[in-house]
Design goal:
12 helices; binds adenosine monophosphate; binds manganese (II) ion
């Protein structure tokens, strides 16, 4: 693994595409755009296309953001799949994998089962952006690439607060800062600033939250009707589960979004005890030990009951 470098992996490839998971977050968007910029800096004659679902507009300052599109055909010498534990999480853009001579997955999810044969997975990396940083030549990282990678580090570590942030994460962040990026502005504009709508949804989710398992778990939900009422997008719910998680006494936080009638996107977080990647994987999802997700169907109470059974088994075990 240590010998592998992006430059070696991409050597000779002229047409390259990059994709990531559905509903791209900061790490997914940052890693795709950061790798794009790095590859183009290395060889301007290359074609590098990024196929993702629309990414949050707060990331629009990143180089290449306006070039992001959905896959609509074409062959590639090489396809990079980033921040994806399971090809099913790519969505419709996964069609580009079949049209590439070589597919390489770079990821940091503990639940990555290596379904893509050439997979580089490092579960103790805080972010895919950290892993990419390791695979890039430090001196070839431009300011534009650094902005992308820094964004991924900031978002997957919750501004270096989560337990996944290591000495190495901080050192990588420090080197990226020295590329001259507006690091404080990136944190403020993309992570801390909330729109009025986002704050209203956060407020609702907090008011309507329910404690269970003697206060060791908390759950809240935003229904499809509420989403429609506020004309909210999925990205407007970013951060709600993290606010639930910091409730005193809570180990495990669940935040559910109703995507379709009685179909919930479930976000799970834990502080110390519950391995939420196991809970999510049990229900067909995945993620990390302290942050994971899955999709579940049924009434709100059915879904909470099913989840709480798995969570309680770990809390009591
Ligand atoms: P989220 O709660 O959406 O922020 O996701 C937390 C972590 O779990 C991220 O690393 C996601 O990539 C992962 N994750 C979320 N939903 C799923 C899913 N349905 N299948 C696999 N991994 C997921
Ligand atoms: Mn991600
Ligand atoms: Mn990630």
């Amino acid at each position: 693994m240590e010998q592998v470098k992006i430059d070696g992996l991409a050597a000779g490839a002229q047409k390259i595409c990059i994709t990531g998971h559905i509903r791209p977050d900061g790490d997914c968007t940052g890693s795709c755009l950061g790798l794009r910029r790095y590859l183009l800096d290395g060889d301007v004659s290359r074609q590098v296309d990024v196929f993702l679902q629309p990414a949050p507009t707060v990331f629009s300052f990143l180089d290449g953001f306006d070039q992001i599109r959905e896959y609509d055909g074409g062959r590639y010498d090489l396809c990079f799949v980033l921040d994806v534990s399971d090809p099913e999480r790519i969505g419709e853009n996964a069609a580009c994998l079949k049209q590439a001579d070589r597919v390489i997955c770079i990821d940091h999810h503990v639940t990555n089962a290596g379904l893509i044969p050439e997979t580089y997975v490092k579960p103790n990396a805080a972010a895919t952006c950290e892993l990419l940083f390791d695979l890039m030549d430090e001196e070839k990282i431009s300011k534009k690439t650094a902005e992308c990678l820094y964004l991924g580090l900031v978002h997957d570590t919750g501004i270096f607060r989560h337990s996944n942030a290591t000495r190495h994460t901080m050192e990588a962040a420090g080197i990226l800062m020295e590329k001259g990026i507006a690091h404080a502005k990136i944190i403020s504009d993309t992570f801390l600033t909330k729109t009025y709508l986002q704050n209203q949804l956060l407020g609702r989710a907090l008011v309507e939250s329910i404690l269970f398992c003697e206060g060791r778990c908390i759950v809240s939900m935003i229904s499809g009707r509420t989403m429609e009422f506020y004309k909210a997008k999925h990205e407007d719910l970013e951060g709600i589960v993290d606010q639930l998680r910091v409730t005193k006494g809570v180990d495990c936080a669940i935040f559910m979004t109703e995507m379709e009638f009685r179909v919930y996107k479930v976000s799970l977080r834990s502080n110390e005890k519950v391995d939420v990647s196991r809970v999510a994987a049990y229900f067909g999802g995945g993620g990390h030990v302290r942050a994971a997700g899955c999709t579940l169907s049924g009434t709100f109470y059915d879904v909470v009951n099913n989840l709480s059974e798995q969570i309680a088994a770990q809390l009591d075990g």
